[in-house]
């Protein structure tokens, strides 16, 4: 059955993931570094979410208002481009810290993204076949201050 579904997906023109091209290395370089965003837990308390991207691995950590680590996971990822859309696909996700420590998710998840100025804009749940709710996340690039140079 899976093979039949794969064959149908290949034969249907315009299947998003199949018509996407691998992204150039410059796309990976643009995402390198540390990104942050704010969120809330189920009770409305503020959370700080940090994402470090390097070597085609994304590590996400979530902290409470007292900077206590609540959750951390990492995943491998690859990037693709379509005409006017960039795709970020993560896979081999593993929970490193928190209540689900050790849990693994092999299934790939793809979302649309864009980097503009110092923002990494992530839109989930809009691709055909997505089973997750639509949501928009905006990450802000953390700028590391440069050290003064000897003169």
Structure write-up:
The protein has 151 residues and is mainly beta. Helix content is 14%, strand content 49%. It has an eight-stranded antiparallel β-barrel. Strand 8 (109-116) and strand 9 form a beta hairpin. It is built from three helices and ten strands, in the order H-H-E-H-E-E-E-E-E-E-E-E-E. The chain has helices spanning 2-11, 16-19, 25-31; strands spanning 21-22, 33-40, 46-54, 57-63, 69-81, 86-97, 104-105, 109-116, 119-124, 135-141. The longest helix has 10 residues, at 2-11. The protein is globular.
Structure summary:
The protein is mainly β.
Distance between the termini: 69 Å
Mean pLDDT: 88
Count of distinct strands: 10
Unreliable stretches (pLDDT < 50, length at least 5) are 1-16
Helix % is 10-25%
**Structural class by helix and strand composition:** mainly beta
Beta-strand share of residues: over 45%
Biggest pleated sheet:
8 strands, antiparallel, barrel
Our count of helices gives 3
Shape: globular
Task: Give the radius of gyration.
Answer: 18 Å
Looking across the biggest beta sheet, what order are the strands in?
2-3-4-5-6-8-9-10
Query: Could you give the order of the helices and strands?
Result: HHEHEEEEEEEEE
């Amino acid at each position: 059955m899976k093979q039949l579904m794969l064959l149908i997906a290949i034969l249907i023109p315009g299947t998003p993931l199949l018509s996407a091209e691998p992204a150039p290395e410059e796309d990976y370089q643009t995402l390198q570094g540390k990104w942050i965003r704010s969120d809330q837990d189920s009770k409305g308390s503020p959370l700080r979410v940090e994402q470090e991207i390097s070597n085609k691995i994304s590590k996400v950590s979530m902290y409470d208002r007292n900077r206590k680590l609540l959750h951390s996971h990492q995943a491998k990822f690859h990037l693709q481009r379509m005409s006017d859309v960039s795709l970020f696909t993560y896979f081999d996700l593993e929970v490193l810290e928190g209540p689900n420590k050790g849990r693994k998710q092999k299934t790939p998840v793809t979302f649309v993204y864009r980097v503009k100025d110092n923002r990494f804009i992530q839109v989930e749940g809009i691709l055909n076949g997505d089973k997750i709710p639509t949501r928009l996340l905006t990450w802000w690039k953390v700028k590391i201050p440069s050290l003064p140079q000897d003169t």
